[in-house]
């Protein structure tokens, strides 16, 4: 069987399992829809959290971006990993003890203010929507290449799949579906890495092969440095000193943005106890580490194979995968000197090959000439990663509208049945809107996701951390900080992103900070504004100070509030 047939089989079987699980775990109450009933096993929650966390950006884009940026791409790896540790250790247990369904719920109650709840709600919608657009691009890329459909059709197919199991199952269905999706994606990511590592270095463990020697006795990274320099690129492992400030800001935005991501935070409300929240955070970190320690090896293997396969090769002799990707428009060959050969070089004037970062992981098995079933497996894994995160994000959007806006603000007397119906309608609308936005995303998957992390860092992180550790932080300070932080960051992003219509160019970046890193500055501004305003306005009420004192001791939490 060829790769096309294997892809149909792998994707078809996994989708049937997802839909079967969603039907089996259909939510019957708002508590099951929002927090899966609050009784999920910590190991299962760790797997679901890992799947929620490892999106299309981690599976499809991260290795691709490291492959083309070299050492500089490691900022994504460091930022996301560090952010998860920060979230698991610093925030999750305290938020779990607070026992609310959503982040706006925490903000609204901690800051005893409907205004604060609404501002947090708007921030959650903004962050989640930006993030889910990145996932839709990942879905579109995978479908367009392996189902021979246009990118737009691929996105629309993805909308249909997510629509079904997210609307039906809510958090309960999504949780069990994500457990299956984690198994699929981690198997799909590691199997080709093991094959290629053994093929190139003789060591089946990718993490060891990454530091090993290739067949001519040269160390892998040394070989990659030589190939890169020969083509006019900088050494793969070279640190770009002129870009260190921006690299720091991007890494920090990813790290602090992670700790403020509402779709990851809400996962810690699905376990019975605070202790279970800590345990599931540890399991999730172990599961995430499998993929994150493999990604740099996959990036290096792919870059060497790509250069050796296409550089200076006659176009008439290119393998089938090359022409297949050309049809998607994500790989473009332009024979500028009309010599019939592919010149892949650093000089933009002479370079004839344009490659979208996001295709590297999907194309990697074909470039390395692995068995056809591995190609199908990787496609199924990429789709699992994109769909699992998209479902989690859509649930945040849904719960923000039905619970925080409708139940807590506009219609407090709404019945549970009415709230559940509103949640399903809002998630359906969000799926369609995200898909339409995904038809024209503003960059690579990882870059789109980086923008979402910047927005989360500049809005939620200071409000959450000060809400837990600063008893003097009042509603005026929190609201002012969130509004100023997210407005500053969003305006900067819009101004410097030409895909969003902004007139700014990289020459105008403040201190050389790109839109992907500006969330760090937005976060610092949020902190300064929040603390300053809180010290010159009405003090925090005593019962709120006692509440803050109480949540600092994670023991003794009950179930998540059913409201």
Automatic annotation (TrEMBL):
The record's annotation in InterPro entries points to: Na/Glc_symporter_sf, Na/solute_symporter, Na/solute_symporter_CS, Na/solute_symporter_VC_2705, Sodium:Solute_Symporter
Q: Does the keyword tRNA-binding apply?
A: no
For this protein's source organism, the top of the classification is: Bacteria, Pseudomonadati, Bacteroidota, Cytophagia, Cytophagales
Q: What's the name of the protein?
A: Cation acetate symporter
Q: Which GO terms describe its biological process?
A: carboxylic acid transport
Q: Which PROSITE patterns did the record assign?
A: NA_SOLUT_SYMP_2 (PS00457), NA_SOLUT_SYMP_3 (PS50283)
Q: Which protein family is named in the record? A: Belongs to the sodium:solute symporter (SSF) (TC 2.A.21) family.
Q: What is its main location?
A: membrane
Q: How does it sit in the membrane?
A: Multi-pass membrane protein
- Keyword set for this entry? Cell membrane, Membrane, Transmembrane, Transmembrane helix, Transport
* GO MF term set: transmembrane transporter activity
Give Gene Ontology CC terms: plasma membrane
Q: Which ranges does the record mark as transmembrane?
A: 6-25, 77-95, 116-134, 146-167, 179-198, 247-269, 281-302, 372-401, 422-439, 445-466, 478-496, 508-533
């Amino acid at each position: 069987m060829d790769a096309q047939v294997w892809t149909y089989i792998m994707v078809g079987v996994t989708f049937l399992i997802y839909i079967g699980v969603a039907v089996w775990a259909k939510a019957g109450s708002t508590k099951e829809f929002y927090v899966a009933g609050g009784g999920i096993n910590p190991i299962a929650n760790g797997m679901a959290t890992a799947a929620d966390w490892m999106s299309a950006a981690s599976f499809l884009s991260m290795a691709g971006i490291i492959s083309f940026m070299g050492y500089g791409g490691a900022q994504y790896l460091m930022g996301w990993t560090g952010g998860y540790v920060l979230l698991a250790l610093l925030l999750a247990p305290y938020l779990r003890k607070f026992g609310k369904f959503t982040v706006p719920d925490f903000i609204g109650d901690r800051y005893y203010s409907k205004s604060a709840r609404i501002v947090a709600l708007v921030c959650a919608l903004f962050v989640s929507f930006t993030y889910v657009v990145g996932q839709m691009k990942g879905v579109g890329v995978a479908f367009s290449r392996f189902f021979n459909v246009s990118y737009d059709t691929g996105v629309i197919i993805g909308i249909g799949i997510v629509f079904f199991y997210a609307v039906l199952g809510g958090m309960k269905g999504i949780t069990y579906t994500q457990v299956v999706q984690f198994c699929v994606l981690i198997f799909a990511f590691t199997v080709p890495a093991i094959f290629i590592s053994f093929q190139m270095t003789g060591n089946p463990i990718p993490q060891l092969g990454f530091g090993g020697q290739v067949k001519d006795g040269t160390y892998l990274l040394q070989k990659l440095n030589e190939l890169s320099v020969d083509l006019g690129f900088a050494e793969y492992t070279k640190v770009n000193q002129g870009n260190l400030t921006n690299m720091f800001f991007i890494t920090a935005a990813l790290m602090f943005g992670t700790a403020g991501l509402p779709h990851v935070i809400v996962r810690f409300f699905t376990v019975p106890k605070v202790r279970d929240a800590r345990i599931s955070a540890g399991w999730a970190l172990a599961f995430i580490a499998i993929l994150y320690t493999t990604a740099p090896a996959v990036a290096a293997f792919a870059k060497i194979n790509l250069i050796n396969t296409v550089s200076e090769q006659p176009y008439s002799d290119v393998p089938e995968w090359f022409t297949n990707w050309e049809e998607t428009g994500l790989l473009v060959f332009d024979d500028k000197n009309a010599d019939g050969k592919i010149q892949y070089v650093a000089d933009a004037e002479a370079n004839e090959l344009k490659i979208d970062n996001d295709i590297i992981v999907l194309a990697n098995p074909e470039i390395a000439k692995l068995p056809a079933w591995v190609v199908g497996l990787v496609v199924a894994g990429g789709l699992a990663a994109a769909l699992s995160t998209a479902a989690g994000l859509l649930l945040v959007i849904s719960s923000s509208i039905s619970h925080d806006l409708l139940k807590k603000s506009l219609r407090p007397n709404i019945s549970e049945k009415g709230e559940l119906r509103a949640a399903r309608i809002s998630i359906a609308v969000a799926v369609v809107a995200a898909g339409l936005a995904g038809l024209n995303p503003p960059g690579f998957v990882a870059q789109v996701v980086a923008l979402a992390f910047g927005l989360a860092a500049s809005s939620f992180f200071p409000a959450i951390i000060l809400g837990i550790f600063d008893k003097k932080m009042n509603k005026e300070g929190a609201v002012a900080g969130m509004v100023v932080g997210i407005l500053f960051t969003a305006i900067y992003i819009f101004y410097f992103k030409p895909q969003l219509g902004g007139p700014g160019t990289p020459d105008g970046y403040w201190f050389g900070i790109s839109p992907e890193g500006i969330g760090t500055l937005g976060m610092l501004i949020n902190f300064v504004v929040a603390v300053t305003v809180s010290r010159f306005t009405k003090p925090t009420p005593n019962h709120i100070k006692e509440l803050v004192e109480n949540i600092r001791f994670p023991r003794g939490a009950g179930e998540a509030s059913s409201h």
